[in-house]
Each structure stands twice: as C-alpha cells, then as structure tokens.
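Might I ask for a little of your time on a matter of protein folding? Here, with my thanks, is the record as I have it:
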Amino acid sequence: SRPPPVEPVDYEIYVVKNKVLLHNDPQRELLIFPFDDVVIPPPRPRQKSRTICSSAPKNASKEATTLLVRECLKTYTSDCHIITYNYNAYSGSYQQLPNKKKLESLPEQVFEIDVDTDDKDEDSTLNRNTVCSITKEGWLFKGPEGQKDNIISFTRQFKRRYFCLKQQTDFTYILEFYKAEKKSETKGAIYLETASDVIKHTKKGKYCFELQMQDRRSYLLAAENEAELVDWMMAFKAVINANETSSQASTERSGIDEECPTPTKSDNHRLGLENSMHPELVKYSRETDTSLAKARQEERHNLFALYPDMQRFIYGQEEEEEVYTSKDVIDVFPKALGQRFLLRLQEFQLKLQANVSDDECIENHQNPEPFFISFALYDAKAGKKITEDFYVDPNSLHIRSMIPSELLHASDRLHTVDGVKNTTPDLYKFDEKWFYSKERRAVFSVTGHPSNIYLYAKIEKVLQGSISHCTEHYMKSTDTKVGTKIHRQMKLFCSRIGHHRMPFAWTAKCVSPQATNDAKMVLYRQESSKLSEEEIIKRLQEMRRPEKQSKWQVIPGHLKILIEPIESPVPNCVTPSLLPLHPFPEPPVGNLHIEIEEFQEDRADLSSPFTCYQNLLFVYPISLKYDCQKTFTKARNIACCIELKDSDDEGAIPLRCIYGRPGMSVFTTVASATVLHHNTFPEFSEEVKINLPTQLHDKHHLLFRFYHVSCESSKTSPRNSSASSKKKDNIETAIGYAWLPLLRGGKLVSENPDPLPIAANLPAGYLSHDMVASGKVMCPEIKWVDGKKELLKVNLRLKSTIYTKDQHLYNFFVHCQKLENNFSPTVESETTNKLKPENGRVTDDAAHHLNAIKSLHAVEVSTFINFLPTILNQLFRLIARTHNEDIAMNAARVLIHIVSEVDNVSKQDILQAYVKYVFKTLPSPKGTKVKTVHEELAKNLTVLLRPINADQSVVSRFLKHSWFFFEILIKSMAQYLIETERIKMPRNERFSSDYQFRIQNLIQAIYPHLYQKPDILTDANTANHSLATFIKHLFTLIDRGFVFRIISTYMENFSVRDTKIFQQMKFEFLKIVCSHEHYIPLCLPLMRRGLIKNYKDLDNIANPL
C-alpha cells in the first residue's frame, strides 16, 4: 500500500527554534534569506517621453474634475512603479546564471562544395576565403572590356552592377561585382594587387573613371553621382597606397636574405599558377599554410561554450532584474512609428509673372498675388483622408506684405480684454517668424502599409470673385504686363478683404514613403462644385485614367516638392500639438519640422496605449443650404467663421486655442473657411484644428458665424485700417449663427452630429434653447432661419488621450465617479453589502452601476488598448474599494475579458509592461484596516472559479491568462509589505490568516478545472506553469511553512494512476518551484547538534523536509 504522505515541516517555527545553530553556522549566508531580497528602487524611474517638456498643461490636474480626465493625467505623468528582486538572476537553471558569458551566435559558414555552380556564367568566380572584410560597397556602372569605342549607346556599353571592395586574409584587395544587391552569386572579380592608378575619364561620361593595372590593362567604371565618384576614387587610391607599402616592405625583406633557396618543384608549380590567366588559380597560388591557418583561427568559437545559451525550457528563462538610477527613463509602451517621410516645398511658380518692384527701372518678377498652400495625404483605395492639413506660405516677403498685418490679427486684438483669463495653451518659447518660416517642413507618417497614397495640395488665393474669372488670366496669358496689372488690382483686395480666401487650384501625386521623390506637380483649376472630400477622392481615383485627366483644365505653372524618407529622429521637430521633441537644441538651429497628425484606423493591431497628453479637435464645416432662405436678402458670398466659446453670456469672448495659419498668430480666436463667389449652397473644404481645454463643461460650444462678404464694395469703399472693429455694413454682413455644444449629457458630442439649424440673431443665453421643451429653463427669444430647418452640416474628428468616443467606457467612469462617494477605506466588522438592502433586492443605483460595468464587454479592443493602464487601474481600485460583492465579481470578470481580448491581438507585451512598470497597489495607511487589491482579487477569482458560478468561457480565459493575475497578486503583496514596513515583521505575521485562507481556496479552485479539461492541453500547461511561478514567489514574501503546505496539498491531487499529461504537469510544477533562488535555505541543510561524531555519521542525517 502507498505510504502516508509526510507532513511538511513548519519552516518558521523550525528556524526560530534553531536560531543559534543558524547564526553560528560557518555557512550561515547560505542558510538565511537575505534582508534585501525584495526592494523598491529608491529613485523611481520616469516614463520615457518623446517631448523635452511635459505634454500635460501646467494646471491640468487642478482643472480636471471628471474621473476619466484625472486618471488619464495620472497615467501620463506618474513615475514607474517597479519591484526589484535582487537575487532573481540566480533562480532557474544553472545555465542562466549571471556569471556565464553570453557568446554571439556562430556565423553562417558557406563552403565551396555546397555552392551550386551549374547556372553560373563563364566569368563567375568563387570566393574561397570565408573571411573577408568589406571596405566599401555600392552600385557602379561597368564599362566594356578593352575600352572598345563604338556607336552603341551608354546603356548598352555600361552595365549596372553591385560592387564590393574587400580585403582578404592575405591583406590583398579584391573587387567583386554582382547583378543584385543580395550578393547571391558573383558575376566577376578584379584583383587589385596590380592596380597602379585611378583617374577620371570624362570622355566616356560625367562620372566615369578608369582603374589602371600594371600589365597595361584597365577597367572603366562609372558612378551614379559626384559624391559616389569621389568616394570610390578615394577608396581605390587607398588600396593602391596600401599595395605600394606592402611591396616596399617585401622588397626590403628580400634584400636582407643573402642566399636565395633553390626553387623546388612545388614552387615552380606555384610560379606557373601565378602566370595563369584564371583568377582562381592566381588566388590559390598566393595562399600559404600560414595564411590558411590564420584564417581558420579568426572568429573561431569554442563549441562547448555555446551550451549555456541553448534553450531547453518551454517557457524560457526569466528576465534579469535591471538596476535603475534616478536619471533612467523607461519606454513603458514603445510605439512603433509608421513609414515616415519629409515633405519640403521647393518652389511654387506660375507661368504668369508680374514685376512687383516699386521702381520701374528694376525688374523683380514674382507671382502677382499671395497664394496659400495646404498638403494632406489621402488613401484613394480606402476612400478617406489619413492626415491633417499642413499649411505652407510660398510667398516672398514682398508679396506677403500685400495683406496688412493688422487685418490678419484684427480678431485677436478685438477679443483681447484686460483682466480676462488668458486661454492660450502653453506654448514653448518659439519665435513666430522662425515658426512660420517659408522653409518649414512636414513629417508625414503612414501606418499599416496602405496602397494608393496620394499627396493632395490645395492652392488658395485672396477673395476676388468667381473662380473662372480669377483663373482666366493665369490660363491664357503669360505677358508680364498683364501680371503687373493683376498685382496692382490685388493690392486693393488684399488691403480690404485679405483675410478671406477663395479656391484657386489643386494638384496631387501618388507617393511612396520609402522612396525619395523630387517632382514638379501640374496645377489644375479648382471647380466650385467639387470641394467636398468625396469629390477629392473621386479625382484621385481618376488620376491614372488619361481620358479623365484630359478634361481637367491646367493652369500653367508648377509646384515643386521634395519627399525624403526618414528613419532617425529629426532635429527641430515638434508634435502636432506643437511640443518640441528630442533632440531639440536651444536656441533651435536650422529649419522647423512639424509632425503631421495621422488619422489611423481604429484597428487593434495598429493601436498602442496612450502615453502622453493630447487633446485636439478637428472641425470640418461641410455645407450650408441657404438657397431657400428668405430671411436675408444678401447671402451669396458666404464666409463661415468658427469660434470656441465657454460661455453664452453677452460679451463673452472666444477662447484663443485655434491653431493659426502662416501669417497669423500661433493660436488665434477665429478661423474662417474659403468663400465661394455668388453661391447660396456653398461646400466648404476647411479643416479647423483646436486645442481643447483640459476640462470641458456644458457651456463649451462651437459657434459658427456666417457673413456675406461684398467683393464690389472692397474695390471702392475706403476702409480705416486703424479701426478696432470691422465695418460689417460695408464689407461683411452677418447672415446667421449656429452653435454646437461639445458635451451632451456630459459626454463628448459625436463625430458625425446631426445638421444644425441657423439662427438670425444671437441673444445671451442661447445655449438654453435645447432645455425649453423640458420646462426647466427659460430660453431667450431666437429667430430661426427657414423655420428652424437643419441647414448646416458639420463633421468632427477627436484626437484626444483624455476623452473617449466610446459610450460604454464613458458610462463606466461616470458610474465609478458616483461610487467614489460610497467608498469607505476601512473594512467593517461584518461583511455587508452597502448597496443591497436587507431583503436582498438590488437597488436602482446598484443595478445601474452593474450595467455600466457589464457594458465594458461591448467596448472595442482598440479602445481597451488605448486606455489600458487607466482602465485596469480603475478596475483594480473598484475591486478593492467597493462593498458590493456583485460589483467586485463583475469587475473581476471584466478584467479577465480585457486581458484575453488584448492578448488575442498579439499585445501580450503591453500587459507585461503594465504589470512590471505601471501597476500600483492602493495605499494602506498605518493604523487602519484597509481592504487591499491582493486580498479582494484572490477572493473574487475564487468565486468565479467555483462550480456554482463557473462560466466555462470565463474559466478558459482565466486559465490561459492566469499569469497576469498571479503577477498582480505578487506585486501587490510586495508593495503592501514594503510601504507598510511589514517586510520587517516575522513572516507568519505579515499577512492575516484570512488572506492565507483565500490563497489556499484559490489554488484549490483551479485544479479541478485543470483535471476536467485535459483536452485543452495548452491552457492547462499554461495555468500549471503560472501557478508554480506564483507559489515560487510566495516563498519570498509569506510564511514559508504555509507555502510548503500549499505544495503538499496541490501534490495530493496527483496520483500514480494519472495519465502522462498530468505526470508531466506534476514534475513541471516541482521543477519550477525548486528553481527558487534560495533553494539551499529552503532545504535546511543543518548539522544537528549531538548527532555528529565523525564524517561517517553525515550519511545518516536525513533532511528535515
């Protein structure tokens, strides 16, 4: 019969009883756990930031009132929370001990016998030396042999080959050339030990040069550009100088020898090989035993030294503990940047030029008037815009001065009031002249490898009239006199309505982010009926159809751009929010680079956790249907002005948080869209970029003002430029107002809101008209245009890391904020449920809270990934602080769902980073009995795994991802011990018996699911491995006798009659547990007093375990 199991020793009591033996033992360092086993690094490392300053505004934490905003700010500004196990490197197998040197992997060996030579050309050669150092490599054009002059073209004479200049083991040089850059097979070789000179050969080409040999042979080569030509010639001259030096040394050595040995038969044979015409034979003749032996010793490894690096375990080795200092920064969630390229505007020039000089005797030909250019990327295949607009000012200083500066800054000066709080976002100390320099460049990024990417450029001009009338002279005339006449006319328009723009032309080009492109783009006239995004996509899809392009009207001129792919960080670069990025010298030297915001798809595989503060809103007015209104007689040249306001009181000024265009302030109060002449149903193509305040409230809203702009009065009517306000009765006439609250019911408005009605007046308190129907608020009288029909279409695009577009996630944080008032930090004497009445029925508030938590199952995975640290922190806080058992259990169920969904899209690395760097257990003040994360998490996981409550899908997900929850438990326990200083207490007093009981119940609840599902081998093995690792870490933190009892209880579940699968799980469990870094102290190898008389008695001493 099977003998009864031996009860494990009570480790802590045994250590106390044998305290004298332990301290007097000569090897006591091996018998006692070190006191610094687990620590929190004193200088907590900071999270790595791409910006040189904090991305969050200075007073953001004070302004934040909603829970989601507060928690997001904490996530982006807090330091890393790391637990260090000082001796963790000694756990595991001896093969991963820290004193083992890690060798580089063996280089791949290629032998001649393994090379297939059947398909080689006649002039192909094999490199018999396996070790050659490459001095230079690149593309060259190889000329014909013997320099035969003929009438064949350059492309027929010269062949493009990939050349490699190598130094061989005998210190001679060889020039090999290949057909492709992969260097799969050589097309030939040139031995350079006889090279005598390298000279230019301009007769054959601009970048040609000749490599001359001592035997009067020569090779004609050609580079692709001047820089490559210089580099190759310098490399060949260095080779020739090295050959001359070695030749002189050889001559000196031969002069010292007084007697020359008689050549042997083998020497004669070798001499004959040197005179051979075959290059391989010549190469073979120069090899000696010494050179071959030396070549064999180079990069040679000891085969047995590679053994420690062999991977022998299924789950791999544990990570080594890193040492951090106060200056360290950790890239917690590294974001993979897309394919990036640099865009620079080189030139914008029209065929029609004007003499803009005030002196008629001086010729200064430039474009007749100011133009404004914006670039954006479109995905023609997906049919959408994928980046924001990048604005460039192509005008010279003289042309730019045609628009008075006071006209561009009139709105900002009008809305500047003394004593009113400054609403301008924090801006780094930029010089506006440098910021809006003509040479500034854009850094575009494309993620996901989309195809059919087009760079679309819009060209606009100052409002003058109809598009056909304004473009007619540019299309039909090239006379400078005509251009000068237009220049004089536009001076008047610029001085009157220079702040209003109209469409002029467009152009587009298919681009590849990986290729350098220097191109001139053809300009096409813009049609007033094709300004919408749908029309732009349609034109881009027709770019490859010549029959469609022939119908587009070309404006003579060109737009010259330069596209360069980039990989390394760019200096003098700022984010889309205008925050400087590393490296950013002070003061900045060179041109400004601006990262352009990319509108990525909400796909899980492209998503990454948010790591910095960003709160941008893009506003797109689409169209205004004013063709049927009868309220205003003049409503044809319609200008749309957009403002962001935080109040609807009379005299409230707009916030200065709209990103300005070149020529304006960096942040302005008003943005205006292009004006279409004599159009009562205008379509807009404007993109307004707004830096939203950190905390939004119900009064924040977008205000749209509409004006009729009179082009005729701007020609004749004088205007006082020094006036502080615009003369609306002469040039600009108000024809309507519309507003869009940013928050509705506390939630951010949808990105595709319903069309808006237009009001003819704007009384104070106009925002309250939505609440009139409920009878709660008295609304001022508002006169509506066209019977309050919805006339204005607007789209929004939110790019924020503190606000969410997901309704379920928003509801969850709203209910969590309500629960904050019910949280009590102390644990009551009885386990009660405060949100449940005595009759067991759930209250309405509790039901709403439960529904909000359960609704997280409907959140998109990409949203989970974006807000992962914030969501997980809130769920752990909810589990530990709530007194409602249903809320805690459903929060644990949601945790399992989130971890599973994130892992299913191959994002396990961000889960690991969260556990290691982000998770922080809740504080436990001294003198109070507070529920902790590890206690409540262990309790609720046990409830979910019990057969009564077990949901098979939840259980399967937990088993597969149990490692995450076990590591959270361990880290919470370690942080709790260190912060409360209970780490200094005896182990059997560190944690309560109730918590030990919960751990025991959790482990007992796991095993039945492993035993009942042997078909799911992977999940069972994963859970068994995670459990073993968890128990191994418990040895470091808790009562070791309790851990031994857990192991004994777990082992009782296995029997000799188990299948092979369970036997393997059993021994895998034991192997991991026994790999503890303090395995020797756990075995208690003590010499018992009174039992040892001689060394023979050592064999009779049994291990107490």
